[in-house]
Amino acid sequence: KILVIGACGQIGTELTTKLRDIYGVNNVIASDINTRNLELVNSGPFEIIDAKNYNAIKDCCKINNVKTVYLMAALLSATGEKYPMEAWDLNMNSLFHVLNLAKQKTIDKVFWPSSIAVFGPTTPRENTPQHTICEPTTVYGITKQVGERWCEYYYEKYDVDVRSIRYPGIISYKAMPGGGTTDYAVEIYHEAIKTGNYECFLSENTSLPMMFMEDAIKATTDLMQAPSENLSIRSSYNLSAISFTPEDIYKSIKTEMPEFSITYKPDFRQDIADSWPSSIDDSVARNDWNWQHDYNLKDMTFEMLKQLRKKYNS
Ligand code: VAH
User: Fold this and answer.
1) 93, 95, 289, 312: which has the fewest C-beta neighbours closer than 10 Å?
2) Pick from 255, 296, 284: which is nearest to 127 by CA?
3) 129 CA from centroid of ligand 1 (Å)
4) Where is each NAD-dependent epimerase/dehydratase domain found (predicted)?
């Protein structure tokens, strides 16, 4: 069976649904620290698990014969700057718990998300390579950089089959993102439908690597299904699809909604965004497990606006 920790989050929500489509509802246990996503809670097996609680995770795995864990719980970049020690505690200890369960063979496969946040201001910003300088300047980025080192260590030292992706910003319509710097790229679509204008917390020319959720979920399940011998990276794979700026999104929304307006009011998240690359080289993922993104900005905008109109019944 499969356990998704942090299943109520932005990625966890859609990942759980996709895994249930592939493996069957009753073979995928969703868990989170609370039941904030009632639709998910009522859609199949669900357990309240605090990702910092080793025994809670171990008991769930043993009782339900869980063999694969997707660890999706974390405090993201913006929240991590407000609560540094909580971010270190959750992001690191949850990873240790799951890696140790794999080391002792309670489970036999782990997915753990990393992020473009592992890169910092000294990293080459254009087409950032798989192997490069990583001096992250956020707590979140530090936890992801160190987490990658631990994943590779557990693979090399204890033969733990842990797999990871450095997610770019992810845009989706089903569940809201939780405290990230790229959240503007989700909020802007909601505001376009709800109010017709958006005050953006990043400057108009801030280019960041981004991806539509459908592509992120495809990448995650493709990586987890790839033959282990094909994988040359056990820290975390660079992955990207599209890079764009707030102005690019604004213009793509405007083609469908000519009356949409935007203002720019950068806040503390501008410094975080400025420390990250503007585009990523994901050729290693494309070579190792045939990664290929499907959605460009135009397709994503079309889908986001269509789905959000339905959601807001407008
Ligand atoms: C964040 N959405 O903004 C997350 C992600 C690449 C960014 O890690 O913190």
Assistant:
1) 312
2) 284
3) 18
4) 2-231
Which numbered atom of ligand 1 lies nearest the CA of 208? 6
From the list 141, 125, 121, 123, the residue with the least C-alpha distance to 133 is: 123
Residue 277's closest CA among 188, 231, 210? 210
Q: Are 36 and 30 in contact (CB under 8 A)?
A: no
Task: Write the burial class of residue 119 (CB in 10 Å: 0-12 exposed, 13-18 middle, 19+ buried).
Answer: buried
Give the ipTM of the model, two decimals please. Answer: 0.95
Identify the residues whose C-beta falls under 6 Å from ligand 1.
76-77, 115-117, 140, 167-169, 177, 180-182
Q: Give the CA dihedral 24, 96, 180, 49, nearest 10 degrees.
A: 50
Give me ligand 1 centre to Cα 181, in Å: 6
Residue nearest to atom 3 of ligand 1 (CA): 180
pLDDT < 50 stretches in the chain: none
Q: Has 153 been annotated as catalytic?
A: no
